[in-house]
Design goal:
Elements: E1 3-9, E2 18-24, E3 27-33, H1 50-56, E4 65-68, E5 71-74, H2 77-95, E6 100-104, H3 112-125, E7 130-132, H4 134-137, H5 139-149, E8 157-158, E9 165-169, H6 173-176, H7 186-195, E10 199-203, H8 209-213, E11 216-218, H9 225-238, E12 251-252, H10 254-261, H11 266-273, H12 277-289, E13 293-297, H13 307-320, E14 330-331, H14 343-346, E15 353-357, E16 364-366, H15 375-380, E17 389-393, H16 397-400, H17 404-411, E18 416-420, E19 433-435, E20 445-446, E21 456-459, E22 461-462, H18 475-490, H19 494-506, H20 508-518, H21 527-532, H22 536-541, E23 546-550, E24 570-571, H23 575-586, E25 596-599, H24 615-618, E26 626-629, H25 630-636, E27 643-647, E28 652-660, E29 667-669, H26 684-688, E30 715-721
The structure holds iron/sulfur cluster (SF4).
Length: about 725
């Protein structure tokens, strides 16, 4: 058998590691890190080889499945796509355009076909009931970017490769390899900071794997990060250490920011945060003493009732200490396919906020979608404007959104549910029709999202490793196929139908090529330059990818035009943020009142719920355990290893407990993505190690008052020894 070597980018997390696959016939015989990849430099984590596990998974669907009275039945593609469009159209004809809701899951952003084609299908559906994994853990970061810089996708990333002091707040990149900071081989990158004489500080309610490596770790009470950040800014103003550098002319509203942080001294923040005032002052002092420093915050501060405020304050801290858009600070990637600079040409929106609100609680729209915390109650509504159809694409919201049990009950009331997914999982088991796309080794890939969030500018293209079978379809073919038939069912003009047909035939690579040509980077700046620069044909000739160099200062040139003709600027004190401070102040005493608070826990061998069916990753000792401080356990009469009942406002689950001293007192931690005991799934490996779902405890009614997104972290719970059966 002749072996061949195939290089591709791993799509299982944001890190974009380069993989080197040895393939014999139809089998992958080895997977290694690609040492010539300019971003990952040979690194992979245990999940990388799991791409093969997904490819070979006997539970992965290849053909459309229709639910019948006697079980799932395979049907042909034309029949399936016709049925999908006809039934969606029927629901909208009967109940109105907004009667079909849609949820797009996290794997969608790792898939070229879905990320480029799903927005058009959603526009054609025309429903204002759109939801996605964005409002699970990152929407407020985008909200801060929208309100401050004028574009929801203008998200800064830490220049980790050149900084001298990195402060990591509520993130565990040693396990995640960075989020909104694509940073493969993060351990080496953090150690490099230390090797060049710099330091790493971690602030987290748990002494995480990253904290173990850091020079300093501070425990912080879950949900209190906004207090900490405000007090850090307070110190900067108090000591008159504001340093604006080249951005002074475009910064607006310094006065209101100064006034806003004035009441939040470190002495006052010490109570809510659990960090004493001298430690906060020392933290700021050390940060400002470093020649180049960066504050990075992620999921831990992105999942509690004040997460919108946090990302505004993180940006302000980097800006005011002179560490924004400068080497070693908080910078912007300038990717070849620029979803910000080319947004208009690519039909990508710069953002919106509060154009409409959810019907039950009035939670605000952001970027065309509603917070997923409203999904269950929206599906339950039985008013003059009901939702009776539901589309999921690459999502498992029963396990990944708050109060999953309420959602699965709500799914039972639908007239039609369509899932584009290659698993029958806890969510898609409720569908009437499942359309499975090709697997991760069967389609091409260019990362249009994570190149824009990476710590180094690179461009990498992966061709398919295997051809698909005749009876398979790619994501873009499925999504465009539904859209074209929907337009046909509505009697839309032939021109509109032909445009979708043409996009389906062209394929996603043609859109990427177009993106290169209209991009503002050195390779673009217009069609003529683009033709001389980066192209798909060049990327096809360079299987390891192209190195486009370190992050570059790009402000203020990269700031987009503002609505209403206002000049591009950075708003240091957006009105919605200032207004939300009153809510924060009112919470001052609540933070210390909970007996126990539950936080999540990311694990290296897992990514949300979608890798639990890969035997190599699922093996080993059970990982769905509640971690707890031994002193809390002693107080509650709990022994190491025993089963405990964890109860929140919305439910009770049972899990084994692991005791230690890694968590601060009063905090317990459970990983997410488990709970595979639901009947009717086809995930044989995952079901054997079902675990319990943290989202059977998280509360859909507990939200960030600013953005309306769910507060998954810091959930008040009680923990008791499990009663014997
Ligand atoms: S760190 Fe992420 S991108 Fe790299 S091999 Fe692991 S899962 Fe894949």
């Amino acid at each position: 058998m002749v072996a061949r070597t195939h290089f591709r980018t791993c799509t299982l997390c944001e890190a974009m590691c380069g993989l080197q696959l040895e393939i014999e016939g139809e089998r992958v015989v080895s997977v290694k890190g690609d040492p010539d990849d300019p971003l990952s430099r040979g690194h992979i984590c245990p999940k990388g080889p799991a791409l093969v596990g997904l490819h070979e998974d006997p539970d992965r669907l290849r053909q459309p499945q229709r639910k019948t009275a006697t079980g799932w039945k395979s049907i042909g593609w034309d029949e399936a796509l016709d049925e999908a469009a006809t039934r969606l159209h029927a629901v909208q004809e009967k109940h109105g355009r907004h009667a079909v809701a849609a949820y797009i899951g996290n794997p969608a952003v790792h898939n070229l076909g879905t990320v480029l084609y799903a927005p058009s299908l959603l526009r054609t559906l025309g429903s204002r009931y759109r939801y996605s994994a964005t409002s699970v853990d990152q929407l407020p970061q985008m909200l801060a970017a929208y309100l401050m810089f004028g574009h929801q996708l203008l998200l800064p990333v830490p220049d980790i490769d050149r900084t001298d002091h990195m402060v990591i707040l509520g993130a565990n990149p040693l396990v995640s390899n960075g989020s909104i900071m694509s940073s493969p081989d993060i351990k080496r990158r953090l150690k490099d900071i230390q090797d060049r004489g710099g330091r790493v500080t971690v602030i987290d309610p748990r002494r995480t794997e990253t904290a173990e490596l850091a020079d300093r770790h501070l425990f912080v009470r879950p949900g209190s990060d906004a207090w900490l950040l405000l007090s850090m800014l307070h110190v900067v103003f108090e000591q008159d250490r504001v340093e604006l550098r080249h951005l002074e002319a475009v910064l607006k509203n310094m006065g209101p920011l100064r006034a806003a942080v004035e009441p939040f001294s470190p002495e006052r923040a010490a109570g809510p945060t659990g960090i004493d005032a001298p430690a906060i002052r020392r933290l700021v002092e050390d940060f400002m003493a470093a020649p180049r420093a960066v504050l990075y915050a992620r999921v831990g501060v992105s999942m509690h009732p004040f997460w919108g405020l946090c990302h505004w304050l993180v940006n302000c801290f980097n800006l005011l200490t002179g560490n924004f858009d400068t080497e070693g600070g908080s910078m912007f990637a300038t990717p070849a396919f620029d979803i910000v600079g080319s947004a208009k040409a690519l039909g990508i929106g710069g953002g919106s906020f509060g154009r409409w609100h959810s019907k039950v609680r009035g939670l605000p729209e952001f970027g065309g979608e509603l917070p997923v915390a409203t999904l269950a109650e929206d599906l339950e509504r039985d008013d003059e404007d009901p939702i009776r159809g539901f589309v999921t694409i690459a999502g498992n919201p029963v396990l990944s959104t708050p109060n999953g049990r309420r959602l699965e009950t709500a799914l039972e009331g639908l007239e039609f549910m369509l899932s584009v997914d290659f698993y029958i999982n806890e969510t898609t088991r409720h569908a009437d029709l499942i359309l499975p796309p090709s697997g991760p080794l069967e389609h091409s890939h260019f990362d249009v999202v994570f190149h824009a969030l990476a710590v180094r500018n690179t461009a990498k293209y992966s061709p398919p490793a295997f051809d698909i079978r005749q009876d398979q379809r790619h994501d873009h073919q499925i999504i465009a196929g539904i859209e074209r038939r929907l337009l046909e069912a509505r009697g839309a003009p032939r021109r509109a139908q032909a445009a979708v047909w043409a996009r389906e035939r062209l394929g996603p690579e043609a859109i990427v090529e177009f993106g290169f040509r209209v991009g503002p980077r050195g390779f673009g700046g217009g069609l003529r330059k683009g033709l001389r620069g980066l192209s798909m044909s060049r990327l096809r000739r360079e299987p390891h990818g192209v190195d486009l160099g370190p992050l570059q200062p790009c402000m203020p040139a990269r700031l987009p035009a503002r609505r209403g003709g206002a000049t591009p600027h950075i708003d240091l004190a957006p009105e919605p943020m200032l207004e939300d401070l009153a809510r924060l102040e009112a919470s001052e005493h609540d933070l210390t009142n909970h007996q126990l608070q539950l936080i999540g826990r990311r694990q290296l061998r897992s990514n949300n719920s979608w890798m639990h069916n890969v035997p190599k990753l699922a093996s080993g000792k059970p990982r769905c355990t509640l971690r707890m401080h031994a002193d809390d356990a002693k107080r509650l009469g709990i022994r190491d290893g025993q089963d405990v009942e964890i109860t929140s406002r919305v439910g009770t689950i049972t899990a084994p407990v692991e005791l230690g001293d890694e968590l601060m007192l009063g905090v317990v931690s459970l990983p997410h993505g488990f709970g595979h005991h639901r009947p009717g799934t086809r995930l044989r490996v995952a079901t054997e190690r079902a675990g319990v779902s943290i989202n059977d405890l998280t509360d859909d009614q507990r939200t960030d008052g600013l953005s309306g997104v769910a507060a998954f972290s810091g959930v008040p719970v009680t923990v008791t020894p499990s009663r014997p059966e």
